[in-house]
Specification:
Elements (H helix, E strand, L loop, with lengths): L1 E10 L3 E11 L3 E5 L6 H8 L7 E6 L2 E2 L9 E4 L11 H13 L3 H14 L15 H14 L4 E5 L7 H12 L7 E5 L3 H7 L2 E6 L2 E6 L10 H10 L1
Parallel strand pairs: 3-8, 3-9, 6-7, 7-8
Antiparallel strand pairs: 1-2, 1-4, 4-5, 9-10
The structure holds adenosine-5'-diphosphate and magnesium ion.
The site of magnesium ion has 4 residues, from α1.
Length: 234
């Protein structure tokens, strides 16, 4: 995956991203970490095309996030599953494939089943979200994100509402996707997952990237803010 961020700033009422510059090539899984309010979700939303930056340029795999077609190349998994509550897991996926990708019922069904199976949900496909566990619902969200065959999958704290057992279950499922040929950009507080899955880590503080590199830098952070953060999450 190739990421290029040039002089990116973003402002709501106050500035939340402050002149971010980043050039990454050949990494498959990039983790964004930092304390709450440091701008991680904003950066993730901009990288995924969900939100347009106030200032600056952002390219992923050579494509500007401002291009109208860019959003078709991404899948997004949110903090809470946000599946349609009245639809089965299967319908949650086939609906999107039929409506946004113009697929036939048969094709949509085949792709939905394939991705639900990949997330070990083949025996749950006819259930509605309220009748499955939070971990199963997050795995269904991941199956849905995969179903549109994106180049890049974005995950924003996908396990923040889950207990430790379900967190482990969901993160193990993500780790099993390592070699499916897609890029991953994710926010998490689970540092063991960052160490296991990420091949590059960005540490954010007050809207800036203040430390970055392969996950080994977390063993020996240089910046005071990174040291303080690592003390807290350990
Ligand atoms: N839609 C929004 N409107 C106004 N302020 C926002 C919005 N989204 C985020 N913010 C503010 O921007 C800052 C960074 O938020 P966010 O990117 O969500 O950080 P993080 O994900 O690291 O917790 C916070 O101060 C937050 O309150
Ligand atoms: Mg956030």
């Amino acid at each position: 995956m190739k990421i290029e961020v040039k002089a990116l700033s973003h402002t709501y009422d106050v500035q939340v991203l402050d002149n971010i510059n980043l050039v990454l090539d050949e990494y498959k899984a990039v983790a964004i970490i930092g304390v709450s309010g440091s701008g991680k979700s904003t950066l993730l939303r901009i990288l995924s095309g969900l939100e347009q930056p106030t200032r600056g340029e952002v390219f992923v795999n050579g494509r500007s996030v401002k291009e109208p077609g860019y959003k078709k190349t991404v899948g997004f998994v949110f903090q809470n599953h946000n599946l349609f509550p009245h639809l089965s897991l299967l319908e949650n996926i086939t609906l999107i494939l039929e409506k946004t990708r113009g697929m036939s019922k048969e094709e949509a069904h085949a792709i939905a089943m394939e991705n639900l199976r990949l997330m070990s949900l083949e025996d749950q496909v006819n259930k509605v979200p309220k009748n499955i566990s939070g971990g199963q619902a997050q795995r269904a969200s991941i199956a849905r994100a995969l179903s549109v065959n994106p180049e890049t999958i974005f995950l924003d704290e996908p396990t923040s509402s889950l207990d430790p057992i379900l967190t482990h279950e969901v993160l193990t499922a993500v780790e099993n996707l390592r070699n499916i040929g897609k890029g991953f950009i994710f926010v998490t507080h689970v540092i063991s997952f960052v160490r296991d899955f990420a091949d590059y880590v960005i540490f954010m503080h007050e809207g800036k990237i203040i430390e970055q590199g392969p996950p080994t830098f977390l063993d020996n952070p240089q910046e005071e803010a990174t040291k303080a953060f690592m003390q807290k999450v350990r």
